[in-house]
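Hi R.,

Here's the chain you asked about this morning:
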Amino acid sequence: MVLEVNGVYKALGNRPVLRDVGFAVQSGEILGFIGPNGAGKTTAIKVILGLLHPDAGTVRIFGNDIQKEPVKALAGVGAIIESPDLYGYMSGYDNLMQFARIHGLKREDVLKAAETVGLSNRIKDKVSKYSLGMRQRLGVAQAIMHHPGLLVLDEPTNGLDPDGIIELRAILKRLAADGTAVLVSSHLLSELEHICTSVCIIENGVIVSRRDLGEAGSVGSRRLPRFELVTDDAAKALAALTAAGYEAAVSGDKVLFGAERGSVPEAVRALICAGCNVFGLSEKKETIEDAYLQATAQQAQPVYNGGDFR
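And here is the predicted structure, written out as tokens:
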């Protein structure tokens, strides 16, 4: 396991910020770390990187305890926390060279990192002349330049234009495919849909959900697929599906039910035999937003979880 967080507790003053936080990230995994403002995301990331000391619990990176062996633990880590820490009076190239010298990297590594994030044509300009998005790109270049085994990103799309966001997606997917473990925190759930292979949800300093993703944009691939039915009589359709053995519920003027894809034609036949008019039927994939709202008790409509609706 690349990253292991176990039983971490952290208080700031008299206020508990993290309470028994625990999760893990393995090689090739992109874990989305999400939660409302003040939930403890940034504090957790700072503890993981050794910037804050936990009051209890442990963090291990490649088996090295971040408190006892910080140099070994952080040797293979790249990170951006909130915003890149850059020297504005220096060029982008010189900023990267400062970092390169620490890790024993060469000029070629700097130029390659700049090319990867799309900054080759501006890498010799002073950072003070960079836009917010360009600064963010330079921060990503610095974080990935030494080919880290663990990449930790806090709001990495901050300031990026649409092209930059798309490029960052491709970079993260490529790194994960090469075995890098990625922990990414973001408020943009729609962006996480495109890249994450798992999601960890924190609220009030507590991990409330840790779920693997199926296809991009779908949560819990081992659950029964969920379908949405459009009909002129939701109550009659609900009764017909229930009688046929399907778990179903009414949501507004539609009916939701869970079924294996191969049994959907049977469900439609049961509806027609019961005299229901079927105007539309579509599969509803549970998204990261669904998982977030469900885990934080903000979901207004019922969510099918493979067993019952709640």
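One quick note: The two ends are 34 Å apart (CA to CA).

Cheers,
M.
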